[in-house]
Amino acid sequence: MAASSTVFSDSYSATSRLLLPFRIRGFHLRRTLFLSPKSNKRSFVSSSAFASVAMTTETSSKLLDGKLIAKKIRDEIAGEIDGIKESTGIVPGLAVILVGSRKDSQTYVRNKKKACEDVGIASYEANLPEDCSEEEVIKHISKFNSNPLVHGILVQLPLPRHMNEEKILNAVSIEKDVDGFHPLNIGRLAMQGREPLFVPCTPKGCMELLHRYEIEIKGKRAVVIGRSNIVGMPAALLLQRANATVTIVHSYTKNPEEITKQADIVISAAGVANLVRGSWLKPGAVVVDVGINPVDDTGSARGYRLVGDVCFEEACKVASAITPVPGGVGPMTIAMLLSNTLSSAKRLHELK
Amino acid sequence: MAASSTVFSDSYSATSRLLLPFRIRGFHLRRTLFLSPKSNKRSFVSSSAFASVAMTTETSSKLLDGKLIAKKIRDEIAGEIDGIKESTGIVPGLAVILVGSRKDSQTYVRNKKKACEDVGIASYEANLPEDCSEEEVIKHISKFNSNPLVHGILVQLPLPRHMNEEKILNAVSIEKDVDGFHPLNIGRLAMQGREPLFVPCTPKGCMELLHRYEIEIKGKRAVVIGRSNIVGMPAALLLQRANATVTIVHSYTKNPEEITKQADIVISAAGVANLVRGSWLKPGAVVVDVGINPVDDTGSARGYRLVGDVCFEEACKVASAITPVPGGVGPMTIAMLLSNTLSSAKRLHELK
Fold first, then answer.
1. Range list of H helices, A181-309
2. What is the ipTM of this complex?
3. In the predicted model, is pLDDT for residue B16 greater than 70?
4. Which of B229, B247, B259 sits opposite A192 (nearest CB)?
5. Are residues A98 and A168 in the same domain?
6. Do B183 and A187 touch (CB under 8 A)?
7. Phi and psi for A257 in degrees, rounded to 5?
8. Tally of structural domains, chain B
């Protein structure tokens, strides 16, 4: 155990290392056991969206269908924005600042813009060259800070190496920090009796998924794997706020398997493919897999495919419920960004 | 277990309920086994300071002597302040704001002033009547904020009920928040790669005690009992920063005994007399007891005496090291307040 515990990194970043002890292949589209959100009825539905992670009915795990829930949330948001536009003329606006020309960042920004459009949020964008100065980035942030049409500001990470991320993120007005990364927000999240203006999107998405499936958190043992500023740590704070008893497992933890096995709820955000094996889980545990890790796959046209932190094939035989990768936490993150932007617009305009 | 788990409160406050299942009495001054700080040698010293908690040598526990360490730290601080005064003429200053006339608060404020005097910190004080307005308190805070002779500002809690504590504490300049309760400080404490300007005094005192006794934290299992904003939660964040694997046990935790028994390090800040029994501890655990709870004692002139959260008589037979109450964390808290005030003066005057 000591060996594997030093393998995973604390920061939530995709790794390209192939850590798969075996390949999860040969999954075919089958009839899949889903748990209907907000109901305890199990229903058989067929879905092509989960072809790659479809479970056979021989397992007892239910899929926590992030794609489905995120769609529902986006529809709710779109409806609310329609209403606001009609009654007040206000259009929520999200500004995205992209520095440099990383292909992956460009894709993320494009996806966010598309998601905004779909629900009626106006997008604003600043594309700055790789070699621009910190001051220039901060100048654009300041402009968005004072622009009343902009209710949320997002700086796409990672920034070029020569920039001080802390300094730049701190320039975003706390009132428009829809990513929720400002230390003032994190402090309020940690404190009893205080309310953060925004909750970071990925951990908020994990919690929303648990809530929509009516999974009880109060009094449960929870383990969060990974303690990054953007996922692990705030996820632990959120679980704690919901009155779970929380343990964070990280790279210095000596017996991660033993500790994780005590948990009723596991949120894994380690960024290591297939770190969490079936043997790590307590029978009946609920598993939320935040990892999106590329692993080599010569059978794929791209040469790789994406897997979570959790060895799905093993975990789905032990867990009572589990998120797929992809189609689990990923879609929830973008839905929460839209939700934070809408909340911000409502707060800034003092709408209910 | 479920019964006792709902008994203790989350907030760190002394309770007057008598929860003692038996009386810890009949302790006499005996020769006590101390662990010398910053050395692994055990030495026999006799001390009248710990008469009430003296351990017999039949136990294996060492006392973590907060009174001794705090004295050492205060001497170090006094020496440093002397040097600063001589070379720069600067005198560190601490302002205390006391609202109302609670006897206990008056005693605390008097003790803090005395401790300041002893190390050469100038004290400033604002005593406001119980029925003054929030605005009046904030006006005094603002004056201290802009007074260059004041490097630390402390609002004595609790405030009268009609006041909004959050609003008042937020008025203290983040640069003079020597209590470290500002959410921006807590946020930075929670985040990797960020540094708080100040760490709250009591949890900082717990950590300093562990460090001075060279107790290793990295990779250890730690349990914090209680999750108050001023002790439990920041203590957990500090242990996590020191790379322990941390679990917070609180009033919704179903099996506090079982969880606590896994810990190499226990910090208890529940505010419940004798909550933590010997059976809660892993043999060899290190125990830091933050509780200061009055329990009825007809044998005492005051009619009560102070005990910790930990049943000392049982725990000292199981733990490898333990703090006494009183004489453990208490003196460390005041020493850390002085330390924070000195750090603040050095930072504001850009001294090394």
1. 183-190, 201-212, 232-241, 256-260
2. 0.84
3. no
4. B229
5. yes
6. yes
7. -65, -50
8. 1
